[in-house]
Amino acid sequence: MDFQRAPLEPAPAPSALSDSFAAAALGMTIFLACIAGTLSRPVEFLASFWPANALMLGLFMRRPGLARDPKAWVASACAFVFSSLLMGDSAAAAIWLSFANLAGVVAGWQFFHGIDRNTVLLRGTRSALFLLCGCIVQAAGESIVGFPATSFLFGGTSFSAFFMWFSSALMCSMLILPIVLSAPTLGQVRQFSLQECVARFKLVHLAPLLALIACETVAMLLGGPGSLVFGVPALIWCALRYSLFSVSLLCLAVGVLKSYTATLGLITYTPDHLVDAISLRVGITLLSLGPLAVASFQSVRNELLHKLHHAARHDALTGVLGRNTFIEQCAHWLQTLGLEQHSAAVLMIDLDNFKGVNDTHGHAAGDELLREFTRLVMLHLRPSDLLGRMGGEEFALMLPNVSREEAREVAERLCDATRRHVFTFNDEVPLHVTVSIGVVHQDAPPRHAMIEQLLREADHALYQAKGTGRNRVVMSAHAVY
Ligand SMILES: Nc1nc2c(ncn2[C@@H]2O[C@H](COP(=O)(O)OP(=O)(O)OP(=O)(O)O)[C@@H](O)[C@H]2O)c(=O)[nH]1
């Protein structure tokens, strides 16, 4: 499914102000990236590391609405031209080079535009392969337009100019794009809790990173052509343990390190060392492909496992705990917190004459009623309360640390709220339903108290509520010993 071709999701329509702000922010980001890239220029040749184009393409892929906004293109074009002029290029060179940069982004955007969004955002099993192809297309786009300018400006053959540009663009895209695509959203950053992170941290989590540092140190000390891949096992280990974003950052760090240490070994990124420079850049590009493929595969797998785990533990219709999970969690509470002599109440809740709803309004309406009823109940619960669907139209609720009176009050409130609530299905006739509730309360549940016993007592009370006319709460007189 992940490689199925489908248009990217349309972005929500932002306001004109936020549109302009986004375009201006993009222009400023591109400008700064261009300045940073220009600083990596060897004398009399193109920059050896140029992150601006991949950054622009990545932002477009993350926010497709931006790519459809002409203001974003104008802001980026201005950023390319002004930064080039600022760094001393002639007007003709600035315009030509900027045009080449934009041509690469257009080519990359055209490639990724029709691909399934999960695949584009590196959450598909074939994402890494699509990423490589997209980077090749982007690099080809900019180098085809830009290489005549290079040989014109800096001399050398057209052949060397093309391949120098192509290999540099390919490496930059492969190192920068995954970072932009997997970077956490603002919402995720806001949710991030440093305290939680520190609490979960174990020294063993650092092992893959330390292994990578060790491998790269040995690679630097030993040198030689094979040293390019010394870090691969450690990078794969990182890909198995860390998030895709972290792995992308590590690939960038390793790529930049390799690129830099090669210059100490006297490779220069000019046509003087054409073959070595191209070979190294393609090597770095392919080096990060493996870890990125593993990391994106891992993120797909983790997401699926999370969904599977959630589906196994929750009721598919209402989203509350399933029967087994409810019993498991209540048992856990009794075994742990119950030891500290807390009190607890268990409520069995059953909609009255639900069969009539199904018969009169249809099964779909019955389903919708169950969903809405669940939402209604949830409004009256504390975060520590547990709600589970025991089957059909029967729910169980565990209220930890409540007195007998409080438990009765909660049950009465639920009964009352259900009676008053108007259920509607697809604008049809409004419907009123009632609920019967059986409650068992226990002061200081004994250690051996079984949730099954409590449920049985609550069920017995529910049976009495049904037998005495429904739409009521019955408190069990029994306690579990
Ligand atoms: N729509 C829908 N109906 C369900 C679901 N699960 C069980 N039912 C129906 O719920 C109805 C329960 O009927 P009964 O056990 O007779 O209960 P009741 O009609 O509520 O009567 P009392 O409990 O005695 O008040 C049956 O018709 C089941 O088919 C479900 O997931 N969705």
From TrEMBL:
Keywords: Membrane, Transmembrane, Transmembrane helix
Catalytic activities: 2 GTP = 3',3'-c-di-GMP + 2 diphosphate
Cited Pfam families: GGDEF (PF00990)
InterPro entries: Diguanylate_Cyclase, GGDEF_dom, Nucleotide_cyclase, Rev_trsase/Diguanyl_cyclase
Recorded GO CC terms: plasma membrane
Enzyme Commission numbers on file: 2.7.7.65
Domain GGDEF: 342-478
Protein name: diguanylate cyclase
Species per Swiss-Prot/TrEMBL record: Diaphorobacter aerolatus
Source taxonomy: Bacteria, Pseudomonadati, Pseudomonadota, Betaproteobacteria, Burkholderiales
